[in-house]
Design a protein that fits this description.
Shape of chain B: globular
Helix content of chain A: 55-70%
Structural class of chain B: mainly alpha
Structural class of chain A: mainly alpha
Strand content of chain A: 5-15%
Low-confidence stretches of chain A: 1-5
Number of strands of chain B: 0
Number of helices of chain A: 4
Number of domains of chain A: 1
Oligomer: heterodimer
Strand order of the largest sheet of chain A: 1-2
Shape of chain A: globular
Largest sheet of chain A: 2 strands, antiparallel
Order of helices and strands of chain B: HHHHHHHH
Mean pLDDT of chain A: 90
Mean pLDDT of chain B: 84
Number of helices of chain B: 8
Chain lengths: ~90, ~220
């Protein structure tokens, strides 16, 4: 997935955030994720903490002790249902 | 010839069937949208769901109030003196329906107009209308108060979306839901006084169609 440039709403940011992880074979380090999401450091941290708290993503350590971010089942479920969620919000003007 | 007992009169049967159908659609909308709300915690979806939950509760309390009032009119003896219960059931119904109208409106404008402490504000307004209902003991007064409230929320909504070209006619359906609610409240006090039974039933059928249309649109997205 390329760099994200246009202004997005909160739901889109979450979708893009999770999609980047998925497209990196469900494993990405924090710094490239920050770069690819095209968010400010502060926004990135806020979304990161929120997605961790909501159990959409988790941080795991590899054999060398390096931290990677992966999607949880709930994160995959959100991605799978994103189109439907977006359609629903549009249809009901929410 | 004496009138038929209230519970076997056509009026009661129609009211019961109408309320059950509306309740069913309201609660189905509420439960069908649970998963997408839990996944997103989207504020619009939250207000939308609560609006239907509270509309369902409002219709349930309306049926109770109807039994209180109409049961008395149609000489249904056990409820011959409903006065002590009447203000309380009026209060409950007014609270649920006011909250429902406010939540439904806010679900469509929260992105454009951010009202700080909306939950607190909407509860204060709903409690005010409920107190009016309690004191007046009249569903008609509640209906007129909510009509005023609806007019204000419609003006705010129109202003918020003045320049928005994207329309799906959903706001028209929301408006119809609120209007049918107000009509149903207006005619509850003395059945057949304000509207002949045929007109009332026609309005109820249209009301059910509107709720059905919304439920159908929900199921289109949420399987």
């Amino acid at each position: 997935m390329g760099q994200i440039t246009r202004k997005r709403d909160r739901l889109e940011v979450i979708h893009d955030f999770l999609n980047i992880i998925q497209e990196n074979r469900n494993s990405i380090k924090r710094t490239p994720l920050l770069r690819k999401t095209n968010l400010s450091s502060q926004s990135f941290e806020e979304y990161f903490d929120e997605l961790l708290a909501k159990d959409f993503i988790r941080e795991i350590r590899d054999n060398k002790g390096k931290r990677h971010i992966t999607l949880t089942d709930k994160g995959f479920r959100f991605l799978g249902k994103y189109k439907m969620i977006h359609g629903f919000i549009d249809e009901f003007e929410l | 010839m004496p009138p038929p007992p209230f519970f076997i009169s056509p009026d009661f049967g129609i009211e019961l069937a109408y309320t059950i159908l509306i309740l069913l659609f309201c609660f189905l909308v509420y439960f069908k949208t649970r998963e997408i709300y839990e996944l997103t915690k989207h504020k619009g979806i939250q207000y939308f769901r609560y609006a239907f939950l509270f509309f369902g509760l409002a219709y349930a309390s309306r049926l109770f109030l109807y039994i209180m009032i109409a049961g008395n009119i149609f000489t249904f003896e056990p409820f011959a003196h409903p006065r002590p219960i009447l203000p309380v059931s009026n209060l409950v119904m007014a609270y649920f329906s006011t909250i429902a109208i406010l939540y439904l409106t806010y679900s469509t404008i929260w992105k454009k107009i951010s009202i700080e402490h909306f939950l607190t504000l909407s509860n204060i307004i709903a409690i005010f209308v409920a107190v009016v209902a309690f004191v007046s003991m009249s569903p008609i007064i509640v209906s007129l108060t909510q009509l005023l409230l609806l007019a204000v929320t419609i003006i705010i909504s129109i202003k918020a979306y003045k320049k928005d070209k994207k329309r799906t006619h959903m706001r028209a359906l929301y408006f119809l839901i609120a209007i049918f609610w107000l009509i149903s409240l207006f005619v509850i006090d003395e059945p057949r006084k304000f509207l002949p039974l045929e007109v009332k039933v026609t309005l109820q059928i249209i009301s059910i169609i509107v709720f059905l249309a919304i439920y159908y649109r929900v199921t289109k997205w949420v399987k």
